[in-house]
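JOB MANIFEST
job_type = single_chain_structure
chain_count = 1
residues = 228
[input]
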Amino acid sequence: MKKRSKRYKSLLKSVVKDKKLAAKDILDLVKKNSNTKFDESVDISLRINLKQSKGGDFSLRTTIKLPNGSGKKEKIAVLCEPDKITEAKKSGAEIVGSDDLIETIASGKFNFSKLICTPSMMGKIGKHGKVLGPKGLMPNPKLGTVSNDITKAVKDIKTGLVEIRNDKDGNLASTIGRKSFSTDKLLENYNHFLESIKKEKPDTIKGEFIKNTFITSTMGISYKVGAK
């Protein structure tokens, strides 16, 4: 049986049973309970309805631009043609390269959290999908990581563009900020996130699209949102 720390046991005392809490109240609790020394992320997790009336189960994969950013620091690599290297360096990307970057990726020794690729370089990177795919690093036009506008692509990620993808059970999760954010900024990100997900509901799904919503922090406990 897993042993709980004294810190975690003290957090359990703040669990509210049999009471529907609004998102703002939960965010206040989460911030209050985020008592570690680092700036914990504040995370949202949803259970969505995947059952369509036709066409099989629905799969959601998209991006959401949080109005106040995510607070997550991304290390971005840009793979581009040699004549775009200067633009890529000026964009704020930490790693920039062309064929040399492909060689680094092929070796499996790379250190970045996002990879942006220009369309003309996709043919060269495609064969490395088995290395990049499992790490969630394969560039994808739908996720804004395949683009000729390198400056915009880098800026979007740096300022709070988050990737969303559900698992086979309909669960999806994302950060909506950091404990250092004000409750108002977290709430604005939370509301924007939910509205963005609701807009993804296809007409072939009947009834409520979002079944359950939970908010937690990196080292905290989870609270179910029960009221608007």
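[summary]
DSSP finds eight helices and ten strands in the chain.
The beta strands are 21-22, 41-48, 61-65, 76-79, 95-97, 114-117, 161-165, 171-178, 210-217, 223-227.
exit_status = 0
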